Amino acid sequence: MPVFLLGLFVVISTVQAAIRSFVLPRSESVRINKWALALVRYLFDTVAALGKTYAQRDRVMALYAPVGLITIPLVCLALVAAGYTAMYWALGRGDVATCFRLSNNVLLTLGTSNPPKSLLISTLSYSEAALGLLLITLLISYIPTMYQAFSERESVVAQLELRAGTNRSATDLVCWLERADEPSDNDTEWNTWAQWFLALEEQQTSLPMLTFFRSPQPGRSWVTAADIILDAAALMMSAVERKPSRYQDLCFRAGCLSLNRIMRYFRDQSNTHTASWIKGEQPVTPPDQESYRKSLVRLREVGIPIVADEDAAWRAYVQLRTHYREAVEYLARLTISPDLHALEVEQTENK
User: Fold this and answer.
1) Residue 241 to residues 236, 249, 259, 268, 294: CA-CA distances in angstroms?
2) What is the C-alpha to C-alpha distance for residues 318 and 307, in angstroms, rounded to an integer?
3) What is the mean pLDDT of the chain?
4) Most buried one in 35, 253, 284, 317, CB count within 10 A?
5) How far apart are CA 292 and CA 311, in angstroms?
């Protein structure tokens, strides 16, 4: 009887974990997922660390999210099979090997070559077949949801690349925005990005593996895109001599809240997805005042009005930056986002 109860507990726990992973529309910490994904992440970190360039590491990590996504239902199926094996064995269906074959036959083929005569065992076999079908159905329905959310996320990332220029910098984005005839003409852009941030929080926490799906282009990343938008907002709010629109303010607030909540969610995952080289607290990179002054010079050159007190603007920028920078850097390390400067260094060294 203890073995039967143990098997029943494993099955119930696994089904509950599958429901919380694939059906429940909120962020939930699932222990089975933690263990499985921690192992997968460790393996990918080990292989990626062998790469000498970012491009090589990127090719390896591009497979992490798809492999992790497939691993979760496979682990669930294996645990269900193990749980039913224990229950069949406890009911005297045969030795462990026989019960294991029976369990997998029922789970994966919806039938058995040796129909049981016991009503209890028949009930177990039918329930196992139903659960196997349920888990496979959940996976089939979960993948389209994942890729639809991925497409929505990446459409904004791709559009931002067109607006922020080839360097993908906040300064270039501000210059592009200021080309509008009226500041209010940019309200549509800020509102679109605010909605993107709100969707980002919901998607990345309810579909955590989506966070690690990498952009089709190796040099792009949703974390980098979020950083550019928030940096552009902080630059305009601190230095441009114009009252920011309410949509710009809402976008900045939405971005800060979204990224910080995503960061807290993954920090609470007890290193499930955490790369081996970013465990523990990491200091936030301080802003570069000289780069900030160069940005102001660039904005003046294109005719954008800049506040007279640059020191006050710098202090305001530093203060605004504290609301999101820790989250950006944490998520960049977590997802191994592309570092444009590092890419340039590698390209120079390879020539």
Assistant:
1) 8, 15, 28, 41, 17
2) 16
3) 83
4) 317
5) 11
Contact 205, 261 (CB under 8 A): yes
**Which pLDDT value is given to residue 350?**
44
Confidence of residue 55 (pLDDT cuts 50, 70, 90): confident
CA distance 266 to 274: 8
| Tokens of residue 206, six digits | 């309810």
Do 146 and 210 meet the contact criterion of CB atoms below 8 Å apart?
A: yes
Residue with tokens 């002054």: 293
| Mean pLDDT, range 238-250, rounded to an integer | 86
pLDDT of residue 339: 61
Q: Give the separation between CA 32 and CA 18, rounded to whole angstroms.
A: 9
3-state secondary structure the chain: CHHHHHHHHHHHHHHHHHHHHHCCCCCCCCHHHHHHHHHHHHHHHHHHCCCCCHHHHHHHHCCHHHHHHHHHHHHHHHHHHHHHHHHHHHCCCCCHHHHHHHHHHHHHHCCCCCCCCCHHHHHHHHHHHHHHHHHHHHHHHHHHHHHHHHHHHHHHHHHHHHHCCCCCCHHHHHHHHCCCCCHHHHHHHHHHHHHHHHHHHHHHHHCHHHHHCCCCCCCCCHHHHHHHHHHHHHHHHHHECCCCCHHHHHHHHHHHHHHHHHHHHHHCCCCCCCCHHHCCCCCCCCCCHHHHHHHHHHHHHCCCCECCCHHHHHHHHHHHHCCCHHHHHHHHHHHCCCCHHHHHHHHHHHC
Question: Which pair of structure tokens corresponds to residue 4?
Answer: 């039967």
Within 10 angstroms of residue 78's Cβ, the number of other Cβ atoms is 14
Pick the closest to residue 262 from 191, 194, 210 (CA basis): 210
Q: Which two tokens stand for residue 31?
A: 């222990």
**Tokens in use for 40?**
């997968």
Which residue ranges make up each domain of the chain? 2-138, 151-350
Q: pLDDT at residue 220 above 60?
A: yes
- Hunting for tokens 């960049």 — which residue is that? 332
